[in-house]
Write a structure and sequence with these properties.
heterodimer; A: alpha/beta; four-stranded parallel sheet; B: alpha/beta; about 10% strand; globular; binds iron/sulfur cluster
């Protein structure tokens, strides 16, 4: 079983090679809840630390693929290497070179394709798995089907955010990142159909693994408040529940644990690696990509499309990608008349009470602005 | 009046900074004070470098030549090759802090939305830019290697100044393909930068910049070799001043000349037997140092410690080939030992620790530095296993506002005691 973290990791490669893969989110840390302290300093990305602990707690994990997207993941790769060595395991660690795309040029696509090819080569020899173009086409289609349904789910949420629980939606995305896509597709299909009021879908969901996911999608709080967009670094679900409890309606997100995961559109072409590189890099860029202009205009259009009157921006402590993006993002949204609420966490549910007051005040402000 | 006081007097009224910094008269005044202080410089190379820095600052602020901001590890030969005026905001941030204006700039950066967990160099730059204290760039040059923050900050600054930002995307894994990828970007960037600044791309001028850069490299290697002598012929604290040349000098005639002067001076000192002194602890210093006060460096000196060598002064790249400017600059960028899995940094540090016969290693763990501090625990463990005591000295290069004043000194003191015990152990 292979672990991975960054949304720029093409899972299709693992599936083609017949390798089970699993997106690390940093939960289920068990007895290893604090193992990271031995490897990583305190002023270090809390998501990275949590992923290390989760990985160490999972005995079936035999390797990780980490995109060299930031220094947190680069050092996380060393931490996995060292911890693997200590436990005497032959543990596979691969750092995947990931170009930045400030100008979205072809050279970046070629460079990424070549690092994907190198990764596939290393995986093949470590796991003794062979690349097969037919298997690749199948994997591609299975992934696309799941992503399309996830986007459909997002579309439904956009129509009626007041019926949805945002954390529940992220749970579904999370489940997708951890499942075999051909097995997950019927589950997801059942959920979508059930949400569309299709009896057939509901009967498929009954008693199946989809039932829990569907139940999680049901909104709990009072849905009286404004529509919101959530952006920034991965955030603890309890914060989303809190926003909803206070009346906020989360109508869209720009999170790599959320909507961005559902976006890559990979078109099959003569070279599988070029196809993958193009599909992944051409998706809306994340803050790390240094394509600020493109991001801001996308985020503004997303806010418009979702009818968001406010943006909640979450930064994980020590995450440079988000922390550097925030100052300008705040300005751009202010110019567009959309106030931004900044939240910072250490990827844990602590600090909720303090946040409650700030979120409450923010929702009131949005209400006043709208003349409610 | 001493040099620092002259500068502080000129800059004491913050409201007039814009006027003072853009007036040629200010630079003439400081130049006069610098000339008077010439003899008090411990090394003439440092005096020359101060003149060079003053001249460059004057050029940047008086606006005669297009100014390009360059991030710390960008191959600045490109800018020299186009006869532009490179400006290092990171160095400016250290200077602003050294002059005592750091806290104000940092607070302004924080007000602009830059978190206190970000590198203080960048917070300080954001604040100083907001206050209008930095020269307006015609373009910005940022490289993605080593620092995740710099290209992100430069992107923001480019928006604020309405100037183009040219980013050099450096892959993490060095390979032939990576060299070509970086070289092609550099070539494109060189043309685009020329266009953005109204320059004509001239290969001969770029080749000359590479020759100067090679001169700098050769001279620094010579100075570094001479520094193997025990006791140290030059203080590491003085050597850390040359960071200025590393950041923006490479490719200039001046950096080649100043480094030649440095190597000669060290050699003269050794040949003339005018060196030595009590040296209790030889240290290898990793990362930079606090710039808001001299307390830490003075404490080390008073305790008999010397910085025998610093990671930042290490020359890690092969000579450049002026006939293949882009490819060889790409190789240089990709050769950085800190932009590789931490094992490579450990390997290089071990070699340096042996070469400079150090007693211990101090890693200055600058709060906002993900690259250096992020890997510090691996570094410590591996180097300790190899036999060197290692101190991870938590602190901040520019932000002294929260420093538990004595904390760093106490930790250094305890570290020196360990070194002392080891020495005694060896004697027995
Ligand atoms: S923010 Fe971007 S680079 Fe960082 S983990 Fe998410 S998708 Fe990857
Ligand atoms: S949250 Fe930020 S620092 Fe952490 S892995 Fe993602 S991009 Fe890197």
């Amino acid at each position: 079983m292979l672990g991975w973290v960054c949304t720029y990791t093409p899972e299709e490669i693992f599936a083609t090679l017949g390798l089970e893969s699993y997106r690390l989110y940093g939960d289920d840390r068990g007895e290893y809840a604090k193992a990271d302290l031995e490897y990583l300093p305190v002023n270090f990305c809390p998501l990275g630390r949590a992923c290390l602990n989760e990985g160490m707690a999972n005995p079936s994990l035999t390797g990780v693929v980490l995109a060299a997207s930031c220094h947190a993941l680069v050092h996380l790769a060393s931490a996995f290497r060292y911890s693997g060595e200590r436990r005497g395991k032959e543990f596979f660690v691969h750092l995947l070179d990931l170009p930045r795309t400030p100008d979205g040029n072809d050279a970046a696509v070629r460079a990424f394709a070549s690092s994907l090819r190198a990764m596939a080569g290393r995986l093949s020899s470590f796991y003794g798995a062979a690349w097969d173009d037919g298997a690749f086409s199948e994997a591609l289609r299975a992934h696309q089907r799941v992503r399309r349904l996830l986007r459909e789910l997002y579309r439904l949420r956009r129509e009626r955010p007041e019926d949805f629980r945002a954390a529940g939606l992220l749970e579904v995305v999370r489940a997708a990142g951890r499942a075999k896509k051909d097995e997950f597709h019927p589950i997801l299909d059942g959920i979508v159909k059930a949400l569309k009021g299709n009896k057939n879908g509901e009967s498929r969901v009954d008693g199946s693994p989809a039932a829990a996911l569907l139940a999680g999608l049901r909104r709990r709080g009072s849905p009286g408040g404004p529509r919101l967009l959530v952006a920034g670094s991965p955030l603890p679900f309890a914060y989303l529940d809190l926003i909803e409890e206070l009346g906020g309606n989360i109508a869209g997100d720009d999170l790599c644990q959320g909507y961005r995961y559902c976006l890559p559109e990979v078109k099959e072409g003569p070279d599988p690696f070029i196809s993958l590189a193009g599909g992944y890099l051409e998706r809306v860029p994340c803050p790390r990509m240094l394509a600020g202009k493109e991001r801001f205009s996308y985020l503004l259009s997303l806010a418009r499309e979702t009818g968001a009157r406010g943006v909640i921006y979450h930064a994980l402590k020590f995450c440079d990608a988000s922390l550097y993006e925030y100052p300008l993002l705040r300005e751009r949204f202010a110019e567009a008349g959309i106030p931004v609420l900044y939240l910072e966490t250490e990827y844990r549910d602590v600090g909720l009470e303090q946040a409650r007051t700030r979120i409450q005040a923010y929702l009131e402000l949005l209400g006043e602005q709208a003349g409610d | 009046m001493d040099l620092n006081r002259t500068i502080q007097n000129l800059l004491k009224d913050r409201g007039r900074w814009g006027k003072v910094l853009s007036s040629p008269v200010s630079y003439r005044i400081v130049e006069g004070a610098l000339a008077l202080a010439k003899k008090s410089f411990p090394w003439q190379a440092i005096y020359q470098m101060s003149r060079f820095a003053l001249h460059q600052t004057g050029r940047a602020y008086t606006g005669k030549v297009p100014v390009v901001w360059s991030s710390a590890f960008f191959p600045v030969e490109i800018a020299w090759g186009l006869q532009l005026c490179p400006f290092s905001p990171e160095v400016a941030a250290a200077f602003i802090t050294g002059m005592g204006f750091g806290p104000e700039a940092l607070s302004m950066g924080e007000e602009a939305g830059y978190s206190r967990d970000l590198c203080s160099f960048h917070r300080c730059i954001a604040g100083a830019a907001r206050a209008g204290h930095l020269p307006r760039p015609a373009a910005l040059l940022a490289s993605t290697h080593l620092c995740d923050g710099a290209p992100l900050l430069f992107q923001n600054m480019a928006e604020i100044y309405g100037a183009p930002c040219f980013t050099l995307d450096v892959p993490y894994t060095a390979s032939r393909e990576a060299e070509v990828y970086v070289a092609e970007q550099l070539e494109r960037l060189w043309h685009d930068l020329a266009e953005a600044t109204g320059r004509r791309p001239n290969r001969a001028s770029l080749e000359e910049a590479l020759r100067h850069s090679n001169g700098f490299r050769k001279n620094m290697i010579r100075a570094n070799e001479l520094r193997c002598r025990v006791p140290s012929p030059i203080s590491g604290n003085d050597m850390l001043a040359f960071i200025y040349l590393f950041f923006i000098g490479q490719g200039s005639r001046e950096a080649a000349e100043i480094s030649a002067c440095l190597a000669e001076e060290i050699e003269e000192k050794i040949v003339g037997g005018r060196w030595g002194g009590a040296e209790k602890y030889r240290l290898l210093w990793l990362h930079l140092k606090p710039y808001y006060s001299n307390e830490v460096m003075s404490f080390i000196e008073q305790a008999g410690g010397v910085l025998a060598y610093e990671e930042f002064n290490h020359i890690y790249w092969p000579p450049l080939d002026p006939g293949e400017p882009f490819l060889s600059l790409a190789r240089k960028v990709l050769a950085h030992f800190d932009y590789k899995p931490v094992e490579e940094r450990i390997r290089v540090i071990r070699e340096l620790a042996e070469k400079y016969r150090v007693d211990g290693i101090v890693h200055f763990s600058h709060h906002g530095c993900r690259q250096s501090t992020g890997g510090s625990l691996f570094l410590k463990e591996a180097l300790q296993e190899a036999g060197w005591p290692v101190l991870l000295l938590d602190g901040d290069c520019l932000d002294g506002r929260n420093e538990a004043a004595g904390g760093m000194l106490t930790r250094l003191q305890a570290f020196f005691e360990i070194l002392e015990e080891r020495k005694e152990g060896c004697l027995i």
